[in-house]
Specification:
heterotrimer, A alpha+beta, B alpha+beta, C alpha+beta, A: 5-stranded antiparallel β-sheet, 4 helices, B: alpha+beta, 7-stranded mixed β-sheet, 6-stranded mixed β-sheet, 26 helices, elongated
């Protein structure tokens, strides 16, 4: 058989220009949706054994070990990030370790598009589509937050200060990209608080 | 137009006399200075006439100081950038500004519509209701178009708006509305305690009316003191200051909408691509209302003549813009404050005298005016105004409070009048979200009382009209608001500054100044200038029985114009109070509604235009569809291919080609949009038994089953095929439109009703690209793709499931059919969707594969009598109605909707039931939704007994087919029904079984 | 635009981030004994709701957060949320005592039944 043809959700989009932030698609990110009960010691232990780190129990936080990151999605749901090449093996190991434990582990690597926003005015750009208080101290590196962005559902992950990843369902990738191109224009840059003397 | 030099040789704190700007008004080129408003620049050129009134087309001039302006509504900008109805007092002039007056034809000075004024006695309050009642058909075609043309504001721009707009969300601890002395002081106090503060002001500069306020603070004049605070706030890290930003609305839990005019004043910004307007959505923990007060006009005869303005507006003209409102003026007042205007005018060299309705005042300003030689007539009112396009003289009559008619009067020549009937706290925003207000006798106005949200009013907005009181109140409010958010913050020890300000004698309400002669003899006491409502209209409404103030408002339209009664509200209540002998609180108030000032549609739309108008969902194969000439059909937010039309083909042709390919060869459908939900847990099977009408706990691993879902009312809400992946693990398919709804539905029942079930539900719709390969050659296509699983009918029969590789791609394959043909639905991870699709097309080409769209899909399923939720069901349709009794379990004791099916109203006779229809004339295709009637009559009404739910031309059967819900339809097999259509044609169709093709279901089972 | 707080995950946000689910504490009769549900009880379950002026109890879902359902007590006049509590819980005792009209009756009966069982 010929080589497989694999296409990321934003493969058809060109490099973004003239923006107040850097914007690019992150391709080939492995994503695993995990469901289980934090009260179930067997579940938590098995997850830690495979992932190398505890699934975070604190809402809107994340944990990581090496290149594996666990994002809190709900009190019984996490999104595990890893290299795409590792997904299959990780899922197999998880299912093995979780045999007989009430849980659900699903490969969702192709379900979402991931966009990386980087720069000093990332928060200001996102505030054009999100009603969250992104300027508050709650939104520090490591924070994970599901949110309404523009008119759709999105997942926000603050990777580092001024480095944000946005996850949207794959079908909305083009819409989200377009929204960011329009709202992140250098000419529509917004400054919030701080010294306003010009 | 007069050419008198109205620009004073000195003064004008807002203008830069070294920077001239050239602009046009009604086509005439005029000169102004940077810093001018359109109002001041036009006035400086000697023009007092700004527009024509709404109903009577009376000539109107400038009245207000800022956003309360109700007369000088101007169209600004040319072509697609034209924006109507802007207040001239808020438009900043720049080089090249193009402005036009409105509601006049052919010109401002000569307006044909002004004839309305001559017939004014026939246009009293409520004239719409009285005059244009009959005949009914005249309303739409004659009355309304004419009235709309004659009575109106500006015209909208033609064409697309070239500018951009956007929304921004912002959170803060304390939102301060208004950047005058009160707001700035409060913001500073709140910020000093560490609160995050946002301050918004609608003007280009901070300071409010500090420059028009008498007195000093610690030796500095009020405006310098205020601006110094403004500079501190701009530098502060925890304060965000917004100018040219109007808080237009206040909503639940301190949610505020702020309209920022970003680029209106500077075309260079727009040329650079800046948004023209921004709409801010601010969530504040506490709000401080520092919106100041709005001066009241006085209701005297013909008080709307150009040249009659508020005293504060006259002061602003002189002090801010160095513009004289005229050369010979009268200040007409019932309070001390307007004497400041008289002093300003005098100082600028303008001839001025004061007419004061009170019998006496010993206030500082009054004494100063007298000592400076200004002639003051106490106990006097203006009883008449002469002049039409401008004031030429007024009559001054002796007056005593309570006296209703003119006894003596004398005529005094003048060319403008500055009036002041007192001040109304600007409490609109206080009232937007049900803030309570109370009447204040000293102010003769309403002031804030209680508010359920955290909101505090300060300064003039709270009825506090003096400087020292305002400062103390603002500091306390700022700190109180900050402390409410930051409980650990400590109040400062407030040290009152050294404030020197005039003492003021009380005002005396003057709701109506008596006039020479009667109302209908050319005298109009305007209350609501913008809607042309007079004191007489209000009194008439009372006499006609519209006693409640809310009724009066609607009958006369008083307070309903775009200014939302800023200047008119209280004067109207005053007139009503005097007419009825009640007090103003007894009359009650009408509701102030958002927006505070009108704001642009562009700002409301924000970026949600063009490509961003709606979120559009694309499957992984979207671009292939586009390249192949797809017409798209919206399914929720998805775009699915309706049909692929090739060159030289019409849509009917391509649909037919696609259908026949599936029936005779093989077709390929992008079904990625189908909802997919993984359901797992020890109680998963029992849970599905609760959700579906039919049984799922008996389903064998690796097998598929079609399921029906009802809501609790017993009505069909979704359907789809579910496969059992493992004993405790299912994958559910939903309709494309139902994916999110059903996932949420399952979660809801798990979380709220069967909380003990151990089940997890994870929607995975978008993980999978899913394609249906359907047709007699479907298996041949699969075979060519080198499957690593047995695809023989025996090993992989209808309604079963396999996992494996196809063309090298990892796939889940469901042998399910919505076309009635041999069919495989193949799912692969989305990023490989395009690759697998291409591989299938490539493999299928020599087998005659055709991609098909949703219309072909719908015809194929209709030929088979398969229902579509939302076509054959309308939200009141039960499984029994569509003939699926067999899928409603009798064994299960409870599932969603089961009990409701037993309710009397669903068990009763005469339910509409699903049937097939064959038209008598095979080429007749019944329109979707056509009604069957019991008896055909010449014209409606006719008794309807059902409706067509799906109707197509079937290429397979070479005739039309339809499905319908018909009263007792199953008992009527063979009966012929009549369907009267628009235009008089009646189609007749015979009731038949809804399965038109392959009744035994043999074709899918090979 | 109400400000809603999720008691499950602590997320706070605009009401558009949440999903209102109507009146709280509606009992589904068929869950308990499907055989004995009268037409009248089923009608009440489907269609009859309180219309409280003042204190009211309702269901919400943390739609753009943890996805969990919860209960809220809200004053329908001032729009103030008095409490947020779990989807399987009753409101704080003080609020049950403060409830009026149909709600007062409901909580009285409910507490009596809970004590009895």
């Amino acid at each position: 058989m010929s080589e497989l043809f694999i296409e990321s959700p934003l493969a058809h989009r060109e490099l973004a220009r003239d923006l107040s932030i850097d914007l690019r698609e992150i391709k080939d990110r492995g994503m695993i949706d995990m469901r289980g009960l934090t009260s179930d010691k067997k579940f938590m232990a098995a997850a830690k054994k495979v992932l190398g780190v505890d699934l975070p129990k604190t809402p809107r936080t994340s944990s990581s070990w090496g290149d594996v990151k666990c994002l809190w999605l709900s009190i019984d749901q996490w999104l595990v990030l890893c290299a795409k090449s590792k997904v299959e093996e990780l899922i197999r190991t998880l299912r093995t370790e979780l045999a007989g434990v009430h849980s659900l582990v699903v490969d969702v690597s192709d379900m979402r598009a991931v966009m990386r926003l980087e720069g000093e005015s990332v928060r200001e750009v996102l505030l054009k589509g999100s009603s969250l208080d992104l300027l508050s101290d709650d939104y520090k590196p490591g924070t994970v937050r599901r949110m309404r962005f523009a008119e759709i559902a999105a997942l926000l992950h603050i990777v580092e200060d001024n480095v944000f990843d946005i996850y949207v369902f794959r079908s909305y990738a083009d819409y989200t990209w377009e929204f960011l191109l329009v709202t992140a224009r250098e000419s529509s840059k917004v400054r919030l608080f701080g010294d306003q003397r010009s | 137009m007069s050419n008198k030099p109205y620009r004073l040789s000195r003064g004008g704190t807002h203008i830069d006399r070294t920077k001239k700007v050239q602009f046009s008004f009604d086509g005439k080129s005029l000169t102004g200075f940077a810093g001018d408003t359109l109002a001041s620049a036009v006035m400086a050129n000697g023009q007092k006439l700004f527009g024509r009134s709404f109903k009577y087309h009376r000539p109107r001039g400038l009245v207000g100081l800022g956003s309360e302006e109700m007369n000088a509504l101007i169209g600004v900008g040319e072509g697609v950038r034209h924006e109507p109805n802007l207040r001239a007092t808020q438009v900043e002039v720049f080089d090249g500004l193009h402005a036009v007056s409105q509601n006049r034809w052919p010109s401002l000075a000569f307006d044909i519509g002004a004839i309305n004024s001559k017939f004014a006695r026939f246009l009293p309050g409520g004239f719409y209701y009285k005059t244009f009642m009959w005949p009914q058909s005249f309303w739409k075609h004659i009355y309304e178009p004419i009235i709309r043309k004659a009575a109106g504001l500006g015209r909208a721009a033609d064409g697309r708006d070239p500018d951009s707009y956007e929304h921004v969300h912002l959170h803060c601890d304390v939102m301060v509305i208004g950047g005058g002395l009160a707001g700035l002081t409060a913001a500073k106090a709140a910020a000093a305690l560490g609160a995050k503060v946002v301050l918004a002001d609608e003007n280009p500069t901070l300071g409010g009316i500090g420059d028009l306020t008498a007195g000093s603070i610690d030796g500095a004049c009020v405006i310098d003191h205020a601006r110094a605070i403004g500079a501190e706030l701009l530098a502060a890290e925890n304060v965000h200051v917004m100018t040219r930003s109007t808080v237009v609305g206040h909503f639940h839990h301190n949610y505020l909408m702020i309209f920022e005019r970003v680029g209106d004043h500077d075309p260079a910004l727009l040329a650079d691509g800046a948004p023209r307007h921004r709409l801010w959505k601010v969530r504040a923990k506490q709000v401080i209302l520092a919106t100041g007060a709005i001066e009241r006009p006085i209701a005297f005869a013909n008080n709307d003549r150009p040249g009659i303005m508020l005293a504060s507006a006259a002061s602003a003209m002189v002090e801010r813009y160095g513009v004289a409102p005229g050369v010979n003026g009268i200040v007409f007042t019932n309070n001390d404050n307007a004497y400041l205007t008289a002093l300003s005018l005098k100082k600028a060299g303008i001839n001025v005298r004061v007419v004061d309705s009170r019998s006496r005042s010993d206030g500082t300003l009054v004494e100063r005016a007298k000592s400076e030689g200004i002639e003051v007539s106490m106990g006097s009112v203006i009883s008449a105004v002469e002049g039409n396009l401008g004031v030429t003289a007024v009559k001054i009559a002796a007056y005593r409070k309570g006296q209703g008619r003119v006894i003596t009067e004398r005529k005094v020549a003048c060319d403008f009048v500055a009036m002041s009937g007192g001040f109304n706290p600007a409490l609109h925003i206080w009232c937007h979200n049900a803030g309570k207000i109370k009447f204040d006798d000293a102010l003769q106005s309403f002031r804030p009382d209680r508010h359920a949200d955290g909101m505090i009013a300060v300064g003039a907005a709270n009825g506090n009209m003096d400087v020292s009181g305002t400062i103390a109140e603002a500091v306390a409010a700022g700190e109180t608001a900050a402390k409410a958010v930051l409980p650990k913050a400590k109040f400062s020890k407030f040290k009152a500054p050294d404030v020197k300000e005039p003492t003021r004698a009380p005002l005396e309400s003057l709701w109506f100044a008596p006039a020479t002669g009667n109302y209908n003899e050319g005298n109009k006491h305007f209350i609501d200038f913008q809607n042309d409502v007079t004191a007489a209209d209000l009194e008439l409404a009372q006499r006609e029985g519209y006693e409640s103030v809310e009724h009066t408002k609607r009958y006369t339209t008083f307070g309903m114009a775009t200014d939302q009664g800023k200047t008119s509200n209280l004067n109207g209540l005053g007139v009503l109070a005097e007419a009825t002998g009640k007090s103003i609180p007894e009359i009650g108030v009408t509701t102030f509604r958002p927006p505070y000032t009108p704001f642009s549609f562009g700002s409301i739309a924000g970026v949600m235009t063009n490509k961003l108008f709606l979120p559009i969902r694309r499957t992984s194969v979207y671009q292939w569809h586009v390249d192949k000439g797809a017409t798209f059909e919206p399914i929720g937010q998805w775009r699915r291919t309706y049909t692929y039309t090739a060159a030289g083909e019409d849509k009917q042709g391509s649909i037919t080609r696609e259908i026949l390919a599936v029936r005779h060869k093989v077709g390929l459908l992008d079904a990625s949009t189908l909802g997919k939900i993984e359901i797992k847990g020890p109680d998963a099977a029992e849970f599905l038994d609760r959700m579906y009408t039919n049984m799922f706990s008996t389903l064998k691993v690796g097998k598929c089953r079609y399921g029906l879902m009802m809501n609790e009312l017993g009505f069909l809400t979704d359907d789809g095929v579910t496969v059992r992946l493992a004993d405790d693990h299912f994958l559910m398919h939903t309709t494309s439109g139902g994916a999110d709804r059903i996932a949420a539905w399952l979660e809801e029942w798990l979380q709220t009703e069967w909380t003990h079930y151990k089940v997890f539900v994870t929607p995975v719709t978008e993980q999978w690209a899913q394609f249906a390969i359907a047709g007699p050659r479907a298996r041949n296509v699969l075979a060519k793709l080198d499957p690593d699983f047995d695809i023989s009918h025996e090993a992989f029969p209808h309604m079963s499931f396999k996992e494996g590789k196809l063309g090298g791609y990892p796939v889940r394959v469901y042998r399910i059919s919505f076309s009635g043909e041999q069919s495989y639905e193949v799912a692969t991870p989305s990023n490989m969707g395009r690759g697998l699709w291409n591989a299938i097309i490539e493999a299928g080409t020599e087998l005659g594969i055709e991609a098909y769209g949703t219309e072909a899909l719908h015809v194929l399923r209709a030929e088979k009598g398969f229902i579509v939720i939302g076509d054959e069901t309308d939200g009141t349709t039960t499984p029994i109605d569509v003939g699926m009794d067999g899928l409603v379990s009798k064994k299960k004791t409870d599932f969603i909707g089961k009990r409701s099916l037993e309710q009397s109203y669903l068990k009763g006779p005469n339910r509409k039931q699903l049937v097939g229809l064959l038209t008598e004339e095979p080429t007749d295709v019944l329109p979707d939704g056509a009604y069957a009637v019991r008896v055909v009559k010449d014209k409606p009404p006719m008794e309807m007994i059902g409706q067509v739910t799906s109707s197509y031309h079937s290429p397979t059967l070479e005739r039309s087919i339809a499905m319908a819900l018909i009263e007792n339809g199953r008992e009527r097999m063979g009966e012929t029904l009549s369907f009267p259509l628009e235009g008089g044609k009646v189609m007749r169709a015979k009731i038949v079984d809804p399965v038109f093709y392959d009744k035994e279901g043999a074709r899918q089972n090979v | 635009m109400l400000m809603v707080h999720c008691p499950v995950c602590g997320a706070e946000g605009d009401e558009t981030d949440f999903h209102g689910g109507g009146q709280a504490h509606v009992r589904r009769p068929a869950t308990h004994d499907p055989a004995t549900v009268s037409d009248h009880d089923q009608r009440d379950y489907l269609f009859i709701r309180h219309n409280a002026k003042g204190l009211h109890f309702e269901r919400w879902r943390c739609d753009r957060g943890c996805g969990k359902w919860f209960h809220a007590a809200r004053d329908t006049v001032t729009m103030e949320f008095k409490a947020f509590y779990g989807i399987t819980e009753l409101p704080p005792r003080a609020l049950m005592d403060a409830a009026t009209g149909e709600w007062a009756t409901y909580f009285r009966d409910r507490l009596k039944a809970d004590t009895a069982s």
